[in-house]
């Protein structure tokens, strides 16, 4: 499906509100902010398949902000790859800040809140893919949540950029299945280059450990709803000892148990925020994602989200919240 949005034909005072409604809120699930004194203008041309989006965006000075509320309302089970064509793009998430220059690439995890900062005119290509498409391919992204690849003199990065630019130019001529294959191939090329860089920096042992970690995450993701999922089952599937698996996970900041529980809580939160979840019992949702005890689920949910599951759902059902989601 081909989509096009632009503001140039609108009155200056109507452009930002149109962009917020048509693109930021409905298409990207972000908040768009622009200084009052700055004339706003923007354009987006996108091609969408069932699971993928490739879009070319250009615009003037503004900020694009993805918040916790937006993640709950619009989902976060995806990655986005940016290829910067013109102008700088500032990126801010957690305690990290950096700037993309033309021909740089940047990939981020939709589960992270972030800001994209445009201090002047920009032009870039954005490709969005579902998480499951990268899980079986990726060796290190799940551990980092984002990756910035500077163009410099690196020939592979330049090749990636040329590939993405050509794909965006031909996207409207490709049938959906062909476009998805082209996007998957681009991500395979990106993944292979980044994995080579990681191994060169850290040695083949680190690459091997990263591969085990990625395969463990894939198994957990596929079986997270099974109430008997445990570190023992994951280790058995991988053919390694539980102690070795625990060491690998601890190096990445969470135990196997914590990783499983965190993913279950994220899935429960997403279901509580969905239209279908409004009519389900909270305990049923918890049991459906592998929790065996409703009291334990409520305690863990409150610790992660600073409110009970019922309060979390009710906060999304306030009249104002419903109106926001309907826009």
Mean pLDDT: 83
The helix content, as a percent range, equals 40-55%
Order of helices and strands: EHEEEEHEEEEEEHHEHHHHHHHHH
* Coarse morphology: globular
**Distance, first to last CA:** 21 Å
Number of helices: 13
- Please state the structural category: alpha+beta
CATH fold naming of the largest domain: Jelly Rolls
Q: How much of the residues is beta strand, in percent?
A: 15-25%
Q: Within the largest sheet, what's the order of strands?
A: 1-3-4-11-6-9-12
Quick one: biggest sheet? 7 strands, antiparallel
Q: Domains counted in the coordinates: how many?
A: 2
CATH class of the largest domain: Mainly Beta
Q: Give unreliable regions as ranges.
A: 320-327
Whole-angstrom Rg:
21 Å
CATH architecture of the largest domain: Sandwich
């Amino acid at each position: 499906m081909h989509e096009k949005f632009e503001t140039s034909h609108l009155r200056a005072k109507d452009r930002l509100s149109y962009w917020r409604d048509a693109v930021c809120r409905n298409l990207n699930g972000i908040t768009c902010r622009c200084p009052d004194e700055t004339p706003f203008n923007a354009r987006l041309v996108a091609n969408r398949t069932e699971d993928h989006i490739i879009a070319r965006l250009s615009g003037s000075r503004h900020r694009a902000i993805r918040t916790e509320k937006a993640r709950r309302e619009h989902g976060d089970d995806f990655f986005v790859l940016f290829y910067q064509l013109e102008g700088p793009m500032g990126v801010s998430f957690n305690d990290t800040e950096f700037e993309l220059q033309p021909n740089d690439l940047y990939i981020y995890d939709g589960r992270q809140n972030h800001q994209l900062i445009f201090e002047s005119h920009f032009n870039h290509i954005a490709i969005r893919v579902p998480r499951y498409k990268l899980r079986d391919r990726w060796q290190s992204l799940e551990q980092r949540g984002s990756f910035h690849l500077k163009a410099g003199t690196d020939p592979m990065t330049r090749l990636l950029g040329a590939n993405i630019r050509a794909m965006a130019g031909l996207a409207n001529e490709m049938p959906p299945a062909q476009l998805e294959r082209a996007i998957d191939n681009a991500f395979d090329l990106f993944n292979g280059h980044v994995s080579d860089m990681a191994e060169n920096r850290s040695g083949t042992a680190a690459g091997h450990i990263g591969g085990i970690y990625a395969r463990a995450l894939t198994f957990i993701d596929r079986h997270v709803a099974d109430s008997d999922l445990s570190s023992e089952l994951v280790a058995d599937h991988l053919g390694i000892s539980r102690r070795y698996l625990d060491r690998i996970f601890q190096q990445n900041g969470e135990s196997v148990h914590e990783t499983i529980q965190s993913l279950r809580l994220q899935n429960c939160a997403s279901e509580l925020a969905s239209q279908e979840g409004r009519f389900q019992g909270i305990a049923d949702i918890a049991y459906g994602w592998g929790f065996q005890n409703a009291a334990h689920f409520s305690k863990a949910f409150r610790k992660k989200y600073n409110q009970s599951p019922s309060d979390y759902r009710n906060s999304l059902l306030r009249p104002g919240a419903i109106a926001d989601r309907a826009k």
